[in-house]
Amino acid sequence: MSDTSEQEEKSQETKHDSVLYIHQGDQKDGYAEVTVSKNADSAVANFYPPASGGSFLTYALFAAKLEENKISAGVLHEVIQESILKANSTHTAIYQILIAQWTPPHNEIPEHFVIRKDLLERKPEIDPNAVHIDWHSISVFTIVQLKEPIARRIPKVDGTIGLNIYGESIPSIIEKVQPFAAGDNVIDHPTGLFAGKNGRLAIDKNGVISIEEVLILKNGVDFTTGNITFPGDVILKGKIADGFKIYSGGSVVSNTVVDVTEIVCKKDLIVQAGIEGGLKGAMRIGGSLTAKYIQNCRVAVRGDVHVSGSIIQSKVYSMGSIIMGTTGKLVGCECIVIGGVQALEIGNPRGAKTYIRCGTDFTVQQELDIANEQLKLLTLKVQKAEEVYKEEPLPDIEKFLQDAHQKKLEISNRITAYLTGIDKNDAATIEVHGTIYPGTEIEICHVAYSVMKEQKQVVFRLDKSRGIIVSEPYKKET
User: Which among 421, 448, 465 is the end of a domain?
Assistant: First the structure.
């Protein structure tokens, strides 16, 4: 057996890691070296011209040898023909020509969701040119609105098998993709996932996407959370750092003392401990308020105010009633409510000024106060303008006076309308289960009463027939 035949047999036995020599016949003849990659995904060839007196390598022989050695898939026949022709015609060797190439498999891609990148990487927008950055306003939460798109649905892509150059199948594999699925309050639509409600976007470790209607602040509110603006309920389990604000489209519930800069909620505020405003704190509550105590705070409530302890140095406005517990004390406050007031004590022995107004709509009262202030300022301007006009009756001053008088008339008409709608409940009462002290001023539907001496267990009500406030002994319900 010739050396060439032995090499070819050896090549066939170890075809996955081999060099195949293809000779025309004689050693002088043209030949080729074919190197097959170890994983049989490609084959490259070197083509050599014949020596003097030798025969040319032919394409037919080359193709037959490839077939004999099972190289049948992905063969680049035109490239082989061109390379053989070039080597034979130029009498130069041609090196490293790719003559066979595999068909790679295409992996199967399961149906999956791709979440919007801006939701996953949402960061607060910070103006680098701003003179002052309000770090309180920078929030780490991702809030989405009803029907807002969350993720695109990517349809399944079927896989296809591959072939190596020996025609052997190479199976496709299923690609791993991040699994996401619709959870609570998420709409699974043919085109993707959408928010079913307003709320906070949450993704658990299993890829389940949910919209949380309740925001739980385990560590309170500070620079790690930024100001809170949330469309649902907020549960506060820690302190509110100084200067931070909460805006809730639902209720706010806290199990600790609430230090208020500003809290706005459309529903109820429930505080298991107390509320402290530091003189500048303000709250607007669309439902009712429940707390152990309120101190140094301005509070506007649409519903009732339930305080088991004390309300001290605060302004409390309610379209309901102030209902205090068996130890409830109102000291140094201004309270305007449509309903009544129930407390153990009002004022204190030191004569702390405490102002209680019942039966009055505080929202109308606020508009009335604004209108009165506008009228007062405008009247002063008119007086000064009239004095100048007497000395120098210029047309522009005359025009100002005409406009100002018209404006005064408009404000006066508004004040009249406010006055007719400000008193809503002439049946309101003020119940004192313990003691009410001198220094307390009472009004029921704008009928005033000053407490001049200490009184105990008394109820104040409006006697409409006489137009005065009268007091009656408080009788505990049995």
Answer: 421
Strands in 286-405 per DSSP E? 289-291, 293-301, 305-307, 310-312, 315-318, 322-324, 329-331, 334-337, 341-346, 354-358
Q: With respect to residue 170, please indicate whether it lies within any of the assigned structural domains.
A: no
Domain that includes residue 184, residue range: 112-159+176-212
Burial classification of residue 191, based on how many CB atoms lie within 10 Å of its CB (0-12 exposed, 13-18 middle, 19 or more buried): exposed
Residues 324 and 311: beta-carbon distance below 8 Å? yes
* Neighbouring residues of 165: CB distance < 8 A, sequence distance ≥ 6: 36, 40, 41, 42, 43, 71, 72, 73, 74, 75, 100, 101, 102
Tens of pLDDT, residues 151-201: 999 999 999 999 999 999 999 999 998 889 999 999 999 999 999 988 888
Task: Kindly tell me the burial class for residue 439, based on how many C-beta atoms sit within 10 Å of its own C-beta (0-12, 13-18, 19 or more).
Answer: buried
Q: Which two tokens stand for residue 19?
A: 């060099």
Instruction: For residue 332, tell me if it sits in a domain.
Output: yes
Task: Copy the structure tokens of residue 466.
Answer: 């006489």
Query: What are the tens digits of pLDDT across the range 285-325?
Result: 999 999 999 999 999 999 999 999 999 999 999 999 999 98
- Angle, helices 77-90 vs 59-68, to 10°: value is 130
Cα–Cα distances in Å, from 428 out to 288, 321, 460?
18, 9, 9
Flag whether 164 is in a domain: no
Give the count of domains, the chain.
Answer: 4
User: Quick one: tokens of 229?
Assistant: 């603006």
**Exposure class string for 276-312: b at 16+ Cβ within 10 A, else e:** bbeeebbbbbbbbbbbbbbbbbbbbbbbbbbbebbbb
Same domain as 315, residue 433: yes
User: What's the predicted TM-score (pTM) here?
Assistant: 0.62
Q: Are 459 and 473 in contact (CB under 8 A)?
A: yes
Q: Could you read off the pLDDT of 256-270 as tens digits, one per residue? A: 999 999 999 999 999
Q: Is 206 helix (H, G, I), strand (E, B) or coil?
A: coil
The rounded distance, in Å, linking the Cα atoms of 448 and 454 is 17
Residue 237 per-residue DSSP state: -
| Number of helical H runs and strand E runs in the chain | 6, 38
